[in-house]
Design brief:
Ribosomal Protein L25, Chain P, seven-stranded mixed beta sheet, single chain, RNA-binding
RNA sequence: UGCCCGAUAGUAUAAUGGUAGUACGACAGUUUUUGGUACUGUUUGUCUUGGUUCGAAUCCAGGUCGGGCAACCA
């Protein structure tokens, strides 16, 4: 227990805040906008916000940042809640920025009364051009000099629905010459005659992010409001509103968002992949969404472990997806029951094994777990084995089947290859072998040592299943950074369907929640498309394959 | 050419003025009835130039490079 955990910069700030007595406990929030599904980048934020209040005394709210009704839907609210729960976190309160619309409206009125906000009826183009540029200061629009009474009257009328969308906005009156563009009289309310997923048609004006987020934090007494780097320039504005309104001083802290190699991580791009049907949906197993990873077979444990390992920093980063896969394999290796499945079958005929005999082999369920036990698997003279486990002319370092070579059939016998047959096209159709009766697993008296062990499934007992293999969705490490359209870099072979693989018979009763290891082939989980008569498995991830590398060298 | 943020092995992440360490990856090997797992070893790094200091990845100054900011998006 003496192992010291290194603190990230947020933990250091929090420990200091707790030590100095600035706070007795901390309060964080996870603030998604319900306009898309959560992805692995959000998982980093979720693990951060909830992790902090697990580690230190405090609690975390789930707050939907639903201030833009034109993009937000209840479907997204539901998926977000499901994903957070699945990741293993429980929020203290479920809040919505829309819960605070009345209070936020009053705050706007207060700002007007203090002469710190005004109604502007300039056109969007006018507002933009009067804002100046980063190097040229802005100029006041005519509305800026309106009286408090007039502003109050107009804002009231905006709320009452007297004006169409875009006719006018409410702006904070700050500093049109600020080098920070966000301080150049930012818009804080706009007119949108749009039905809201929660408040319905009660409102036709909605606060902007900058006039809702900090206020919501403050209302909830959030002590540490954690967001991503692009909000850094918003912080002075965040603080300005809190100061002018004299409300609870929440503080904003920023960290670098997660990026992963060979994928994209923006909701806009992910939505494009869905809408343009490059994938089957938000939960397509190739998507970096939480729902996609879940369907693919990822475990919450492995995702949490990954988020812990990537760390929290302020520098931009792109994490190698192999780290995610490492975390997954590490977890699955410990917990996944082993099974045998042949994905690309050829027949192995044991010429000296009685044709009418069926033996039951006891096969280990998980060599990593002594308590996992064994299961019976039927063995006959006709077996399915992987096509790639036989080589007519073996290469160097090959220690699977080849003419004259011996190999062990996992948890069964050692066999010697005696020959093979081909069809007219020259494809191997059958491999012939003899088995060594004295080499049975557990009572092997053959004295032989074999270098290779392969898996098998008895032909008459095999059950069929569809298996879906996945590869990375993009060919480029960082498709978003490539020239042109990111979709030009999509990997067109990211999904490979094996319509008919052969599985050991017990898999007919496969459990939908269990991630299985198909020995030597990777980890697999039942897909939601699966039915009792037509099993469908997703390959979660392959096993590390050092032979594949060796084979490439040749 | 305004303001803001950042820069440590291939990718991430520590070292908080005192031996540049860890993980993933890669490479090599040992063990193995999964070419899996486990274990061992190897490889590669402080953006740059000055300054402060007995001593700088760390503090200071200049530069370089990367990123962000001018939505009635969040």
């Amino acid at each position: 227990m003496s192992e010291e955990k290194r603190l990230n910069f947020l933990e250091e700030i929090i420990e200091s805040d707790l030590e100095t007595g600035k706070y007795d406990s901390i309060q964080t929030r996870f603030p998604p906008e319900p306009n898309g599904y959560l992805h692995i980048g959000h998982a980093k934020s979720i693990c951060l916000n909830f992790g902090l209040t697990q580690r230190y005394k405090g609690s975390t709210n789930l707050r939907f940042d639903d201030t833009n009704p034109s993009t937000e839907e209840t479907e997204y609210v539901d998926s977000i809640k499901e994903d957070i729960r699945w990741l293993g976190f429980t929020w203290a309160n479920e809040f919505y920025a829309s819960d605070y619309f009345d209070r936020i409206y009053s705050m706007a009125v207060e700002l007007i009364e203090k002469g710190l906000a005004f109604v502007d009826d300039s056109t969007p183009d006018e507002i933009a051009s009067f804002k100046g540029t980063p190097t040229v200061p802005g100029k006041p629009t005519p509305g800026r000099s309106r009286s408090v009474a007039e502003n109050l009257r107009l804002f009231e009328a905006m709320k009452a629905g007297k004006y169409p969308d875009g006719a006018m906005v409410l702006r904070a009156k700050i500093d049109l010459a600020s080098p920070n563009m966000h301080m150049r009289d930012p818009i804080i309310y706009r007119i949108k005659h749009t039905h809201h997923h929660r408040t319905g048609d009660k409102w036709c004006i909605y606060p902007m992010y900058d006039f809702a987020h900090g206020q919501s934090d403050s209302i909830e007494h959030i002590t540490h409001s954690i967001c991503t780097l692009e909000f850094i320039p918003h912080r002075p504005l965040y603080d300005w509103f809190i100061e002018q309104l004299g409300i609870f001083p929440s503080h904003q802290y920023e960290f670098a968002r997660l990026n992963l190699t060979y994928t994209v991580m923006s909701k806009r791009k992910l939505l494009q992949l869905v809408n343009e049907q490059y994938v089957s949906g938000w939960d397509d197993p190739r998507m970096p969404t939480i729902s996609g990873l879940r369907r693919r077979g990822y475990t919450p444990e492995s995702i949490r472990d990954f988020c812990e390992r990537v760390g929290i920093q302020k520098r931009e980063n792109i994490i190698d997806v192999s780290l995610l896969e490492f975390c997954l394999r590490e977890h699955l290796n410990k917990v996944a029951p082993r099974r045998m499945a042949v994905l690309d079958p050829i027949k192995l005929i044991l010429t000296n094994y009685p044709a009418d005999q069926v033996e039951t082999m006891e096969v280990e369920n998980n060599p990593e777990d002594p308590n996992a036990g064994t299961r019976p698997v039927p063995f006959t003279y006709q077996l399915w084995i992987e096509r790639e486990d036989f080589m007519e002319i073996p290469s160097k370092k090959w220690f699977r089947l080849a003419p004259g070579a011996i190999v062990r059939l996992k948890n069964a016998f050692i066999v010697r290859c005696e020959g093979f047959s081909k069809d007219e096209a020259g494809n191997i159709t059958e491999v012939h072998a003899t088995y060594l009766p004295e080499s049975r697993s557990g009572k092997d008296t053959s004295g032989l040592t074999v270098k290779g062990t392969i898996h098998w499934v008895s032909v008459p007992h095999a059950i069929k299943a569809e298996i879906r293999l996945y590869d990375r969705l993009f060919r480029s490490e960082n498709p978003a950074a490539e020239e042109g359209d990111f979709k030009d870099h999509i990997n067109l072979n990211s999904l490979q369907i094996i319509p008919e693989a052969y599985l050991e018979p017990g898999m007919a009763l496969a459990d939908a929640q269990t991630r299985y290891q198909f020995i030597r082939k990777g980890y697999f989980i039942l897909d939601k498309d699966s039915t009792p008569g037509q099993l469908v498995f997703n390959q979660t991830v392959t096993l590390k394959d050092t032979w594949a590398k060796e084979a490439k060298k040749i």
